[in-house]
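User: Please predict the structure of the protein below. I'd like the answer in structure-token form so I can feed it into my own downstream comparison script.

Assistant: Understood. Taking the following sequence of 164 residues as input:
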Amino acid sequence: MGELITRYVKFGVAWLLLIGLVILYNGYGCRRVLGPEMEPTIKKEQFRTLYAGKTKPAEDVTYDDVVYYEYEISGEPQAAFVARVVGLPGDRIRIAKGEVYRNGTKVAQPYVGQAHMTNEDYEEVLVPKESFFVLMDNRQHGKRWDSRAIGPVGRYAVAGKVKQ
């Protein structure tokens, strides 16, 4: 009888552990950055911890947060991306000769290496309510997948913040 109880207790503990791991994975998780779009901050093919579920209220995302968002682009095999938040709802974002201006003030970008900068201009954009303006740190590689090409990213497309 004692062996049977011990066996059931072990089985119950194993199930609780498994359920705990599933809850932990859904709450945090781990995602892989597939391309070099965030170099030098995050290397290609590197795994990062994702704080999922913490981005639903817009107040949880702030400037310089790195977020993981999903966006389907026709003809592209990749549908999830990682980028840095440079604009919040209501901000005016403009890019002149590769420099980012938020509400008329130049934004410091120490995370973008000189080798990854571009010399392009983008007209001023007003970031809509419930959206973020995101840019990848490797500006040369990431211009097809960040807000320069797809526009501001809605907060519901953001799956979570990436631990840096």
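That's the full token string. The first strand starts at residue 30 and ends at 33.
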